[in-house]
Specification:
Shape: elongated
Function: Functions as a peptidoglycan terminase that cleaves nascent peptidoglycan strands endolytically to terminate their elongation.
Structural class: mainly alpha
Family: Belongs to the transglycosylase MltG family.
InterPro entries: MLTG-like
Number of strands: 6
Main location: membrane
Membrane topology: Single-pass membrane protein
Helix content: 40-55%
């Protein structure tokens, strides 16, 4: 091939490669521009979407929506509850907001919000445990009450009867559901055939707020069990160290509650009970006799002490089969941290004072001096 032909062929190939390179650069430029436009449009759309999702669902709404945030709820769970109840537009955006602002330590409880609230308002309320409306009902359950008495208090204030409440808390299927919900609190112990009332002692004494005109019995029971579970969790290490199961701890706390009228008496009384159990002595506490009898009496008679019952601590060894009432935190704390002493006996005088003794002879002396 001549030199001119080779040169001509080279120029043709060069021209073709140049044209091809131009086409590739043009295609690449179009792709880059397209991607950039899509990114910009996507970012703008995402921004507007997130910004919109963070706004109140309905700025003009005055509707009050009550939600329950269970104990131990994750941010995802809370976000789902808010979205399902129409209080936020998007659960994912709520989670992003919480993570971006590093918000933590949301409080379990019942809250009343409105669709007109800002997301920040809800987050602040959830962090501080602040409800946004006055309760419809505020009911106080004192310490030392039986299930029967608790049912009566609720029936006096709410829409159901005492019998309705007792039927629910004694329903086997319902109890099994609760055992699944509260596995660290409710065990097979409550289903023992000799237990009179399975949830006796487990419904914590406190003041409860309800934001519905007619709260369900299930809601009431769960609120009370949640409070008991929180308290048991707080003292679990000390109770484990003492060797008590949850059921035994609650049973023991109920005895201390019924025997001690004053908070400052409880640790010492718990210590006496510990000493009696270590000696292999029966606890011989009169409130268990009254519970076994199923009636209130001003004075327990000698003939009452022989009643055959798994609750009667004059008959059974150590603790009764189950709690005989609910209890205050101070009673559970006394079980977890009893006062050390050598006392084996105590009695109450007419003024509410307690007199302790190390021996039965001293106890008889105290009885002669301080009892009518």
């Amino acid at each position: 091939m001549s030199r001119d032909k080779r040169k001509k062929k080279y120029m043709v190939n060069f021209k073709e490669r140049t044209e091809e390179a131009k086409k590739v650069r043009k295609i690449v430029s179009i792709i880059v521009i397209t991607i950039a436009v899509l990114l910009i449009v996507g970012a703008a759309s995402l921004f507007f979407y997130v910004n919109s999702a963070m706004k109140p669902v309905d700025p003009d709404s005055e509707e009050e929506v009550t939600i329950e945030v269970p104990i131990g709820s994750s941010t995802s769970t809370i976000a789902s509850i808010l979205e399902e109840n129409g209080l936020i537009r998007n659960a994912l955006v709520f989670r992003m907001y919480v993570k971006f602002h590093n918000e933590t330590d949301f409080q379990a409880g019942e809250y009343t919000f409105t669709p007109s609230m800002e997301m920040k308002e809800m987050v602040d309320s959830l962090k501080n445990g602040i409800v946004m409306a006055e309760p419809v009902h505020r009911i106080t359950i004192p310490e030392g009450l039986s299930m029967d008495q608790i049912a009566e208090i609720y029936a006096d204030s709410l829409h159901f009867t005492k019998e309705d409440f007792l039927e629910k808390v004694n329903d086997r299927a319902y109890l099994e559901e609760l055992m699944e919900q509260y596995p660290n609190l409710l065990t097979e112990d409550i289903l023992d055939e000799e237990i009179r009332t399975p949830l006796e002692g487990y419904l914590f004494a406190s003041t409860y707020d309800f934001y519905k005109e007619e709260p369900e019995i299930e809601t009431i029971v769960q609120k009370m069990l949640t409070e008991t579970e929180k308290l048991i969790t707080e003292y679990r290490a000390e109770l484990d160290e003492q060797g008590w199961t949850v059921h035994e701890s609650i049973t023991f706390a109920s005895l201390v509650e019924k025997e001690a009228g004053e908070v400052e008496q409880r640790n010492e009384i718990a210590g006496v009970f510990y000493n009696r159990m270590e000696e292999g002595m029966p606890l011989q506490t009169d409130p268990t006799v009254l519970y076994a009898l199923g009636e209130h009496k001003e004075r327990v008679l000698y003939e009452d002490l022989d009643i055959e019952s798994p609750y009667n601590t004059y008959v059974v060894e150590a603790l009764p089969i189950g709690p005989i009432s609910n209890f205050a935190e101070s009673s559970l704390e006394a079980v977890a941290n009893p006062k050390q002493s050598d006392y084996l006996y105590f009695l109450h005088d007419a003024d509410g004072n307690i007199h302790y003794a190390e021996t039965y002879e001293e106890h008889l002396k105290n009885r002669n001096e301080h009892m009518d």
